[in-house]
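debug: dumping io for the single-chain case to check the tokenizer round-trip. Nothing else runs in this session.
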Amino acid sequence: MSISKLFMACSLALASLTLAAGAHAEGDVPAKKTVKKAAAKSTKKAAKPAEPKAPNEEEDEPVITDSAVTDFDCELGNKISIYQNAGDDQHIALRWKKRLHRLTRVGTTTGANRFENKMYGLIWIGIPAKGMLLDSKQNRQLANECRNAEQQKPVTTATSEPTSAKISIQ
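debug: decoded output
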């Protein structure tokens, strides 16, 4: 039994030396103060949740004064508003879930209007018949079948009346 007690005492001594060497490497800061500082920092973080930091152009919501607004009604009762300045066709402001997002035009080969906000993962695709809002981060649709007032009008086709005139070739 004395060997097991000796082994236990050596293990405890080695463990305490390891802890002391770790504290010495951190600049002779006692372990208790380190724990208190970490606890204080964690309570500050818990009290104030960190929001994702936006790039410079998106720190504030886009300015929509003097913008033309187009409201879209989507399936499942979703609503989207798009604000566009007459002099800037490269950007739009899109209101989704009570928040304005700035989206930048991305070129397409199909002629569709595609705007993206890479930070939030939003993609707006507008075609003549409808628009849709996608979330590229979660790979899902947020809103589909979005139509403005013009797109909701019934489509009418020009009907040609049959002509009863006979054409004679001579």
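debug: round-trip ok. The mean pLDDT is 75.
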